[in-house]
């Protein structure tokens, strides 16, 4: 194959762990072309490539974002393969506002 495989299942759940009640899930494949059930696969793949697959960069909060301090956790996960490497990523945001304030749209679905 000319391309290293990149196929992920992305989830968003309510709660503070990866086993939280999953509310939404999509698939994202980036090679050879962006595809899957992600609503903006092309942009999500471009952001993943730009971050070199470092999901922590994608879940960082945009500068100048203001959210309440309420604890209403939202957990996002990415499981699968990115450029041939196994991925098992999980990140918990303090609340939905913080999740929406992430720098990327990879987990916007």
In words, what does this structure look like?
The record marks 69-70 as: Reactive bond. Keywords: Disulfide bond, Protease inhibitor, Secreted, Serine protease inhibitor. It comes from Streptomyces orinoci. With 109 residues, the chain is of the alpha+beta class. The protein has a single domain, classed as Subtilisin inhibitor-like (Subtilisin Inhibitor, 2-Layer Sandwich), CATH 3.30.350. Helix content is 18%, strand content 32%. It is built from three helices and four strands. The chain has helices spanning 41-50, 55-59, 96-100, and strands spanning 7-14, 21-29, 74-82, 85-93. A four-stranded antiparallel sheet has the order 2-1-3-4. β3 and β4 (85-93) form a beta hairpin. The chain is globular and about 45 Å long. The chain starts with 6 loop residues before the first strand and ends in a 9-residue tail after the last helix.
Helices, strands, pairings?
Elements: E1 7-14, E2 21-29, H1 41-50, H2 55-59, E3 74-82, E4 85-93, H3 96-100
Antiparallel strand pairs: 1-2, 1-3, 3-4
What's the CATH architecture?
A: 2-Layer Sandwich
The fold-level CATH name is Subtilisin Inhibitor
Alpha carbon gyration radius: 14 Å
Regions with pLDDT < 50 over 5+ consecutive residues? none
In round numbers, the mean pLDDT is 92
Feature tags:
109 residues; alpha+beta; four-stranded antiparallel β-sheet; 3 helices; 4 strands; 18% helix; globular; Prot_inh_I16_SSI; Subtilisin_inhibitor
Give a nutshell description of this structure:
The protein has 109 residues and is α+β, with helices and mostly antiparallel strands. It contains 3 helices and 4 strands; from the N terminus they run ββααββα. It has one domain (7-100): 2-Layer Sandwich (Subtilisin Inhibitor), CATH 3.30.350.10.
């Amino acid at each position: 194959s000319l391309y290293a495989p990149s196929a992920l299942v992305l989830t968003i759940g309510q709660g503070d762990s990866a086993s939280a009640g999953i509310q939404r899930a999509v698939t994202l494949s980036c090679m050879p072309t962006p595809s899957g059930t992600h609503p903006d696969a092309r942009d999500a793949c471009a952001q993943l490539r730009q971050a070199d697959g470092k999901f922590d960069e994608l879940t960082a909060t945009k500068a100048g974002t203001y959210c309440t301090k309420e604890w209403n956790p939202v957990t996002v996960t990415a499981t699968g393969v990115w450029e041939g490497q196994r991925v098992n990523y999980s990140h918990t945001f303090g609340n939905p506002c913080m999740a929406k304030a992430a720098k990327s749209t990879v987990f916007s679905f």
